[in-house]
Amino acid sequence: MLRGGFFLFGKPLLHGRDEAPVRRAEVIALQPGRSYPVERAVLQCARLRERFCLIERQMDREIRIVEHQLVPARADTGKVTVTIGEGEEAQEVVFEEEFQYEFKKNLSTLCGGGFNAEDKDGTFKEAKFARPLRLALDNENQKLYVLEADAYKCIREVDLINEKVSTPWRAPGLHNLRTISFGTTCDTLFVGVEGSSSNVSTVFLLRSDGFVRHKTYAPRSGSNASILNPVDGELFINDYYKGMVLRWDRDKQEMVELVQCFNNNTDFTYCWSHDGKYLYALALGGASHSAIVRMEYDFATKTLGEPNTWVGMDGQLGYQDGVGEDARINQPYQMCTGPQGDFFLADTWNHCIRRIVDNAGTATVTTYAGIGGQLGFTEGDPLEAQLQFPTGVAVSDDGSTVYVADKENNRICKITVE
Questions:
Q1: How confident is the model at residue 75, as a pLDDT?
Q2: Of 10, 127, 204, 210, which shows the fewest CB atoms inside 10 Å?
Q3: How confident is the model at residue 412, as a pLDDT?
Q4: Are residues 413 and 110 in contact, defined by beta-carbon separation less than 8 angstroms?
């Protein structure tokens, strides 16, 4: 693995008509304006992340960097091609082994942090959080919305550009707040409310109103999770008493039972695929439930297919990377979709963030951040940093930043890829 910089790969090369080997170049870091002992060459790599260099012949055995070529962002492997000479005399060598770039990742505290839960607005340095629960990211306006539940019952707005935190909405009179998500656009926020005597399952807030007041969207008791299909805007909520997925029929103003995905009395939440074709249900209720099931959505009938276990196995908690039912998770609170179709999961009781890659319904689970089973408050290399019961996760449009609600550390973290 190579980390950062500009590189020239060592291999005997041919140059000119006599095909005499050019002096072998070791793997070296090239710097603009300096000369090195090899012929004129263009280093090309179609999928590398770093900039490579156009180098110019100086005498017979020296080169000088004269310009850089930008390689697409977030690419990580590719064939290196070295071209010697120009025109008809140009010769090309393609390296047999693919170059693999080792991305540099870092986990740091974006704002908040500390032992005490405290609700305070201000700059990133001043702001405090009280057990942040779940996240919703508005990539267009660069704002992160944080749901604080329990006694605080509010939405915090994290302005990623101006680096300020504010509280546009508080929810007196509502029971526990459990989920937050945008609709088909980022103009409407939907909040799942734990149904109680108030008989409210979902409320919504409008950007045009500054997200300062809510209205009831769907009534229901016995539910605490809601989410809209990102394509057709249909609302789905849960019935944790029955382990059932429900759809809100807007025309008839009634709930439609679709499919039972877990046993009775199972708390669970949702995540959609980007294209709205698959609904994922995350079981997190009690010590015996920790699995994710996958259901195919029929846009024409607005129904769901049979649930298939996608990650883990219900009733078998633990921490283990792996494929499908061989992987183990422990209390998955929130999952979001990445730009490449991958998923990021807040694996709460394992104190880590997992990355899931789906291949035609087969899920491969790896650890993206945190140390499985070890809680703490540290930063740095994501696989060495420590979290404490992370419950929320969101990812930027380009996949370069993952945001984490580190609940018991009362902070919002960011994991960046450089």
A1: 56
A2: 210
A3: 98
A4: yes
Residue 150 per-residue DSSP state: T
Residue 228 parent element (H or E)? strand 226-228
List the chain residues with pLDDT less than 50.
1-70
179 near 202, Cβ under 8 Å? no
Q: Which of 116, 113, 153, 115 is nearest to 133 (CA)?
A: 153
Residues 318, 290: Cα–Cα separation, whole Å: 9
Query: pLDDT for 409-418, tens place per residue?
Result: 999 999 998 7
Global pTM? Answer: 0.78
Separation CA 381–CA 383 (nearest Å): 6
pLDDT of 62 reads 45
On whether the CB atoms of residues 81 and 44 are closer than 8 A, the answer is yes
In angstroms, the Cα distances linking 169 to 175, 179, 312, 322 are: 15, 15, 36, 41
Structure tokens of 257? 């039972």
